[in-house]
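ok new one. same drill as before - structure tokens go in, u give me an amino acid for every spot. 714 of them this time. try not to just spam alanines like last time pls lmao
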């Protein structure tokens, strides 16, 4: 399941009502009639146009990535993936900004008591969380994290934490209250690519396996499994005597191996953005591509119920990371019997628009086999979870109930007060909340720095912008640019040197400080799409870096190879400092920005685009005027871009007065031609499984890559 993440919906929410100091800068002098000739002017078909733009901008990345996908040796595959990412970053299509976390926070939740695994959905399964009634001291959080590192792999961390906390005088409770910031758009986990959906729904079902607190996968609905010697057949024994229940806890069906088969077909039938995960190049399940193309029946797809309690997947080729994918929503079971009772059908008969189709429309139209049932849902208000008494490991749950309370993040004080008063069990501390904690005299004792994760938020560049107002409301988000200015910006965005200059012009430390404060401004900064430590070579490999072969020893991190290829390509960005790709700003470089901008000016002049301080390139950047965080960050971005480029780029800050309208411009669009921005920092990606392709595959053409639409294509 692809996780399309909204940056302004992350854990640290810094929104409050404020006025924009800079306002919306209107475009300046209108240049003379542009003589530039659009190289794609004769392509009228949108898909063909998108492919042509993609080939121009990302052709080198695509070729390098295909070579990586074809490589059978795992370590060499990792090295080739790093080379492919270097081609992507060198194209200047986006600017990595931050991960999640790295901010001050207060909490009642013991660290690492839901898995800290970097990929998939299991980190949002909260049934094992250990929650206490009092705020936990920062020094004790540090001590628990150190003990986790010592005990990892022993299977004893959970019992140690409970003993430690009670020994320190804390009272462990069996309920948990947290914030949520967006209603699920569907309650069908097999029909969504949105993190806002899957992070809630993951608590309602179980997968075959689940990662535990110590990052080891454990049996869940699969009691055991075997893998054939050739690595092509995975056979799972499903727990017997398990049932599906409705949201009131009443049995609706027995749980069988066939429910995993039904779930897979339903996911493919949806035609959703999830499907690529099981197809060739990812999970490699036999005939999934062919089924989607209408060239095979589902009976020919490589997922079978051998009997009621035996499930088998057959792959086209060995896939080293296949097991890491299984806790994810794309492999979720679905009660065939209940689905049909809700009007669901399969194959050519699938029609989610039919009047009789009710499945996934609300929490009372899905069946549950996980640790919790959703017993109450009030839109933009509350989601209430209660124990599923039929859950196979109900006795092992640390929590019996959960409540998610809605917030749009606009009231800093209320969110802080809710945490202090025990209404919620944790809160991220923005600059304003840090000051509240200091004034209350609790900051030094209780504020800790949260861990960062493997999420990659980015500032995406719209390289083929087609929308200059919101698709949902043409009166909202209107660009102030003249027609000539739109043409000039479009031409500039097709120029690699211009895009690199733009990426190098933004002081990301200052930008991030507006949210987390000056002291922590570098903590969550990232410099690559795939974290540099995401994988490590298991054996020595030799690959071509630039014009020369280079040998890397076993133990070499992905980030080192990525950096070497960027250096060989002459791209003046730093993505690896020897140990990490995060925690420093390796992109902001006014000197390199000036050099790239000079090349862009020269090349664009030859195409009929004159760029000067009098005739700059105008970029539209959206912001929320009801969010103090958005106001401050976008003004910092504007000031940095204009200063670094000596006014050759000017920024129009485009005001959005409501959260929803902002999301329609930056997040809630199905195709790139509805993306209403030139630069947008409102989204990012979280990994689905344990291989770099979980990131890089998002930039595939022809709708195979979910994030490609953030570039204004497909």
């Amino acid at each position: 399941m692809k996780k399309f993440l909204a940056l302004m919906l992350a854990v640290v929410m810094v929104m409050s009502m404020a006025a924009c100091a800079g306002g919306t800068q209107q475009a300046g002098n209108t240049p003379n009639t542009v003589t530039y000739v659009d190289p794609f002017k004769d392509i009228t078909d949108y898909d063909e146009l998108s492919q042509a733009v993609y080939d121009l901008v990302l052709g080198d990345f695509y070729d390098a990535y295909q070579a990586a996908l074809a490589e059978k040796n795992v370590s060499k595959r990792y090295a080739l993936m790093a080379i492919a990412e270097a081609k992507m970053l060198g194209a200047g299509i986006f600017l990595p900004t931050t991960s999640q976390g790295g901010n001050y926070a207060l909490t009642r939740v013991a660290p690492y008591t839901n898995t800290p695994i970097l990929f998939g959905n299991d980190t949002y399964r909260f049934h094992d969380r250990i929650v206490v009634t009092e705020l936990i001291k920062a020094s004790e959080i540090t001590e628990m994290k150190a003990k986790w590192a010592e005990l990892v792999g022993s299977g004893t961390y959970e019992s140690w934490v409970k003993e430690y906390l009670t020994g320190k005088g804390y009272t462990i409770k069996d309920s948990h209250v947290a914030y949520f910031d967006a209603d699920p758009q569907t309650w069908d986990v097999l029909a969504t690519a949105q993190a806002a959906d899957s992070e809630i729904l993951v608590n309602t079902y179980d997968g075959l396996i689940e990662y535990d607190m110590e990052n080891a996968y454990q049996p869940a609905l699969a009691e055991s499994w075997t893998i054939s010697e050739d690595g092509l057949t995975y056979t799972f024994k499903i727990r017997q005597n398990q049932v599906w229940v409705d949201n009131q806890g009443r049995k609706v069906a027995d749980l069988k191996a066939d429910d995993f088969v039904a779930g897979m077909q339903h996911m493919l039938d949806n035609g959703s953005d999830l499907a690529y995960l099981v197809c060739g190049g990812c999970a490699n399940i036999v005939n999934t591509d062919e089924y989607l193309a209408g060239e095979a029946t589902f009976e020919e797809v490589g997922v079978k119920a051998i009997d009621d309690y035996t499930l088998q997947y057959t792959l086209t080729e060995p896939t080293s990371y296949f097991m890491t994918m299984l806790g994810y929503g794309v492999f979720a079971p679905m009660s065939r019997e209940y689905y049909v009772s809700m009007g669901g059908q399969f194959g050519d008969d699938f029609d989610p628009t039919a009047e009789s189709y009710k499945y996934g429309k609300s929490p009372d139209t899905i069946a549950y086999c996980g640790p919790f049932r959703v017993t109450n849902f009030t839109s933009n208000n509350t989601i209430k979870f209660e124990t599923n008494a039929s859950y196979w490991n109900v006795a092992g749950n640390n929590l019996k109930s959960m409540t998610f309370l809605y917030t749009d993040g606009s009231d800093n004080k209320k969110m802080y007060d809710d945490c202090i008063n025990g209404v919620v069990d944790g809160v991220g501390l923005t600059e304003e909340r840090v000051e509240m904690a200091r004034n209350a005299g609790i900051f030094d004792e209780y504020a800790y720095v949260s861990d960062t994760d493997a999420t990659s938020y980015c500032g995406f560049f719209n390289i083929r912008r087609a929308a200059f107002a919101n698709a949902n409301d043409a009166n909202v988000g209107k660009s102030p640019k003249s027609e000539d200015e739109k043409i000039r910006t479009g031409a500039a965005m097709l120029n690699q040197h211009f895009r690199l200059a733009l990426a190098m012009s933004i002081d990301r430390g200052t930008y991030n400080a507006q949210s987390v404060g000056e002291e922590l401004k570098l903590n969550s900064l990232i410099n690559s799409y795939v974290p540099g430590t995401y994988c490590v070579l298991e054996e020595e490999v030799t690959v071509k870096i630039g014009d020369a072969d280079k040998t890397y020893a076993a133990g070499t991190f992905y980030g080192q190879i990525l950096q070497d290829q960027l250096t060989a390509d002459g791209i003046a960005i730093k993505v690896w400092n020897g140990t990490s790709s995060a925690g420093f700003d390796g992109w902001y470089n006014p000197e390199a920005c000036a050099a790239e901008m000079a090349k862009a000016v020269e090349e664009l002049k030859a195409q009929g685009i004159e760029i000067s301080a009098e005739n700059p390139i105008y970029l539209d950047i959206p912001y929320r005027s009801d969010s103090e965080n958005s106001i401050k960050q976008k003004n910092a971005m504007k000031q940095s871009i204009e200063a670094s480029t000596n006014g050759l780029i000017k920024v129009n800050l485009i005001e959005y007065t409501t959260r929803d309208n902002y999301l329609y411009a930056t997040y809630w669009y199905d195709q790139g031609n509805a993306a209403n921005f030139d630069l947008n920092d409102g989204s990012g990606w979280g990994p689905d499984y344990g291989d770099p392709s979980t990131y890089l595959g998002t930039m595939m053409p022809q709708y195979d890559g979910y994030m490609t639409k953030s570039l204004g294509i497909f």
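Confidence is low (pLDDT under 50) at residues 1-32. and btw The chain is about 30% helix and 15% strand.
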